Amino acid sequence: MAVRIAPSILAADFTRLGEQVAEAEASGGDLIHIDVMDGRFVPNITMGPLVVEAARRSTSLPLDVHLMIVEPERYIADFADAGADRITVHIEASPNLHRTLQSIHAAGCAAGVALNPHTPAASLSEIMHMVDVILVMTVNPGFGGQSFLAEILPKIRQLRTMIVDSGRQIDLGVDGGIDTTTVQQVVAAGADVLVAGSSIFSKQFSVQHGIQQLQAALIKG
Q1: What domain count does the chain have?
Q2: CA 191, CA 3: separation in Å to the nearest integer?
Q3: Is the dihedral angle over the CA atoms 186, 188, 192, 198 positive or is it negative?
Q4: C-alpha closest to that of 92 among 74, 121, 70
Q5: How far apart are CA 20 and CA 206, in angstroms?
Q6: Tens digit of pLDDT for each residue in 41-74?
Q7: Which residues contact 118 (CB under 8 A, 6 or more apart)?
Q8: Torsion, Cα of 124, 125, 128, 133 (10° steps)
Q9: Residues with Cβ within 8 Å of residue 133, at least 6 apart in sequence
Q10: Which end of the chain is more exposed for a tag (fewer CB within 10 A), N or C?
Q11: What is the DSSP letter of 45?
């Protein structure tokens, strides 16, 4: 199973955003993860389509847009037009999830579903045939730099089993508290996309150093 690293620009220095996105690509990042928060679904406000558009001009990597917003279906076209390659919505914010996933596919993007810590894996059982990406929140969403919730590991294992049983190619990502001490645990549980923010973008070290440290931890595991 090839494990990919998705640097999350929520933790980047926004005065040098284009530079840091380009550095993430040059240093071996596989996807650029963009957290969109509206201050309603989660208690924080971050970025919108204009930031996605700016990131698109700065990298050739796939843009992995994570919508932590209410009524995500209203904004699918905006983010697709801005350059998103993958759009993930929260099952908790999407009462008509089937239709929303159809809209993401119609916009030409891979469709993802994110699960908050309290949401069971089984909630995806009726939608597995439409999902390209599953994103497991290993913190409560809304802020970067939180501590990893180890009690989510069984859910990651359960979702990996569901993916295998589906017979489909579905990415299983984890988001929250991913660093050199947790990567081995989540990969052992079945994750293959690691969203990492503060462990890559830091004032204490370079983006290259952050990615290399995660890669080294994976090899060690």
Answers
A1: 1
A2: 8
A3: positive
A4: 70
A5: 9
A6: 999 999 999 999 999 999 999 999 999 999 999 9
A7: none
A8: 30
A9: 64, 86, 88, 110, 111, 112, 113, 170, 171, 173, 193
A10: N
A11: B
Measured distance CA(193)–CA(7) in Å, rounded:
10
Tokens coding 9 = 């620009």
SS3 content of the chain, % helix, strand, coil (to 5): 45, 20, 35
Q: Do 35 and 14 contact (CB within 8 A), yes or no?
A: no
Residues 30 and 24: their CA atoms lie apart, in Å, by: 8
Q: Choosing from 30, 38, 64, 175, which is the catalytic residue?
A: 175
Counting every residue written for the chain, the total comes to 221
Nearest to 144 by CA among 2, 3, 14, 1: 14
Active site residue 64: no
Annotated catalytic residue, options 30, 35, 132, 179: 35
Domain of residue 115 covers 4-220
CA-wise closest residue to 8 among 190, 204, 177, 153 = 177
Write the pLDDT tens digit of every residue in 81-97: 999 999 999 999 999 99
CATH code, domain with 172: 3.20.20.70
35 is catalytic: yes
Distances (CA, A) of 199 to 9, 25, 146: 11, 16, 11
Which token pair is 212?
A: 């290399």
Pairing mode of beta strands 193-196, 4-7? parallel
**CA-closest candidate to residue 155, choices 168, 173, 143:** 173
pTM for this prediction = 0.96
